[in-house]
Specification:
Length: 321
């Protein structure tokens, strides 16, 4: 008989998913196979939902409400299928590593071409502004300058995220991206206010109002991502489904919480295991669930709390203002 792995085994030898023997009883797992729609029926219901919405011009009637309900159910089942694939195969379906690298290289090349073109365009507009003194051309020149500024911010945030420093930034630099967007959005909003002060006539044009509204909404979106806004109920459903199907020994799920922390989510899960379960076994169940959750691209970090009952008060009280 093979000897068990030593407690101090290295990370490469640790299993992400707890092995189960062939023919093991899987009746304890949630199963939605009986509710699955064929691809043809699912696509047909999506088209009917879009068609009804377009015909009603956004006004929800009884038929539109039914179509929207079925659309939500189809999307929920697709999300559960994604969680089943993660549980069975150990990876999230999508592009391969080579495809992601190829796409990243293409995006980098496109950004460089765009920056070079913006530099030539900016130089030409500076010359035209000096020669003409036109306020419209000056405003267009400032717009080109901001295009260059946005390119620099994107390059700087991408460079910062690709150069980790685990001693100064132990959880990574992924929040550099929303912070960079927040800075650029603030500059754009300031420019909009300057346009208001310089020319009321241009304020009444669709250029100015659209710019202010768009970048103000961008500011609000990124503020919400930094203050810890809760994830959508549909995403929490997927997480709950994944947690329940993780292991047969899980008796209850006390808490499933996800909230924004930058551009990704932090997830907190409380699961209930038998009180007499050995520490080693319960630890392996919790740790493998944590690693499985962190495989999802939307999640930055996951925290799994193990308990033997669920009648107590929540572990963390909300902070008072």
């Amino acid at each position: 008989m093979a000897e068990p792995l030593a407690p101090d085994r290295c990370d490469a030898e640790r299993l992400l998913f707890l092995p189960q023997p062939d023919g093991a009883d899987r009746s304890w797992r949630l199963n939605f196979d009986g509710f699955q729609l064929s691809p043809e029926r699912a696509e047909g219901r999506r088209k009917r939902a879009r068609g009804l919405h377009d015909c009603c011009l956004g006004v929800l009637g009884p038929e539109d409400n039914v179509a929207e309900y079925y659309q939500q159910q189809v999307e929920m089942l697709e999300g559960f299928n994604e969680m089943d694939a993660l549980a069975e195969r150990g990876f999230v379906p999508g592009m391969s590593k080579e495809e992601r690298e190829k796409l990243a290289n293409s995006e980098t090349f496109a950004i460089r071409i765009s920056n070079v073109a913006n530099m030539f365009l900016f130089a030409a507009k500076v010359y035209a502004s000096i020669r003409s003194g036109s306020l419209a051309i000056i405003a267009s020149t400032l717009d080109s300058l901001l295009d260059l500024l946005s390119g620099f911010i994107l390059w700087f945030t991408a460079f910062s995220m690709q150069t980790p420093n685990p001693y100064r930034y132990p959880i990574g630099k992924r929040r550099m991206q929303p912070l960079g967007i927040l800075v650029f959005a603030s500059v754009m909003a300031t420019l909009g206010l300057q346009i208001i002060l310089e020319s009321v006539r241009q304020l009444l044009s669709d250029l100015a109002l659209y710019t202010i509204r768009t970048w103000s909404m961008t500011v609000l979106e990124n503020v919400n991502s930094l203050v810890g806004r809760a994830a959508a109920p549909e995403f929490l459903q997927k997480l709950t489904y994944l947690c329940w199907n993780h292991h047969k020994a899980i008796k209850n799920i006390d808490t499933v919480r996800a909230y924004t922390f930058g551009s990704h989510y932090f997830v907190e899960v409380d699961i209930v295991l038998p009180a007499n379960m050995p520490l080693q076994e319960s630890h392996d169940i919790g740790e493998s669930l944590q690693e499985k959750l962190e495989l999802l691209p939307e999640i930055e970090r996951a925290f799994v709390h193990l308990d033997y009952e669920y009648s107590h008060k929540p572990e963390h009280a909300q902070a008072h203002s």
